[in-house]
Design goal:
This protein is mainly α. The protein folds into two domains: 7-93, Multidrug-efflux Transporter Regulator, Chain: A, Domain 2 (Orthogonal Bundle), CATH 1.10.1660; 102-163, no CATH class. 40% of the residues lie in helices and 5% in strands. The protein has a three-stranded antiparallel beta sheet. A hairpin with a 5-residue loop joins strand 2 (36-37) and strand 3. The chain is elongated. Mean pLDDT is 74; it is low at 151-179.
Length: 179
């Protein structure tokens, strides 16, 4: 493959980065990337912009907002392309955020198994986790999966003991499995 030129058109940058030209223009409007203009007023981007676009996509995948990405990019050196050490420093700052997202996804996974695994297939009528649909007062959506609890109230006793084989008497908390 031939070497890339020092400057890329917006179409070349889009093809190489996998990002739509409209997104590249948006990134430029937000100050995430910079272009120069040719005599014919065509945008051209310095070759290191490919790294910046890859960084932006990685940061978005981590969950950073565009404002956070702008702040992170502002810490990169001016006048030279970022090097591995620069990227390592920035990515280390994301580790806590990634760990939090992983834990959140694990809670979601475990909650889905516990909520739907009982076979009733209805969070609204589940007699173990949401007796009389009390959690609906907290708002729309899958409230337990969004992190709500039963407002500090103990969940009422579940179904008759014949349906609770293996469970001790008493209520289950919203985080416990009913199966």
């Amino acid at each position: 493959m031939p070497a890339l030129p020092d400057r890329l058109t917006i179409g070349e940058l889009a093809t190489r980065s996998g990002v739509a030209t409209s997104a590249l223009r948006f990134y430029e409007e937000r100050g995430l990337i910079e272009s120069e203009r040719t005599a014919g007023n065509q945008r051209v981007y310095p070759r290191p912009t490919l790294r910046r676009v890859a960084f932006i996509r990685a940061a978005q995948a981590v969950g950073l907002t565009l404002d956070e990405i702008v702040s992170a990019l502002a810490t990169l050196p001016a006048g030279r392309p970022p090097v591995k050490r620069d990227w390592e420093r920035l990515s280390m700052a994301w580790r806590d955020r990634l760990d939090e997202r992983i834990a959140e996804l694990e809670r979601l996974r475990d909650g889905l198994t516990g909520c739907i695994g009982c076979g009733c297939l209805s969070l609204k009528t589940c007699r173990l986790l949401n007796r009389n649909d009390r959690i609906a007062t907290n708002g729309a959506g899958a409230r337990y999966l969004l992190g709500d609890d039963a407002d500090g109230q103990e969940i009422e006793s579940g179904p008759p003991s014949s349906a609770r084989d293996g469970f001790s008497e008493g209520a289950l908390s919203p985080r416990q499995s009913c199966c």
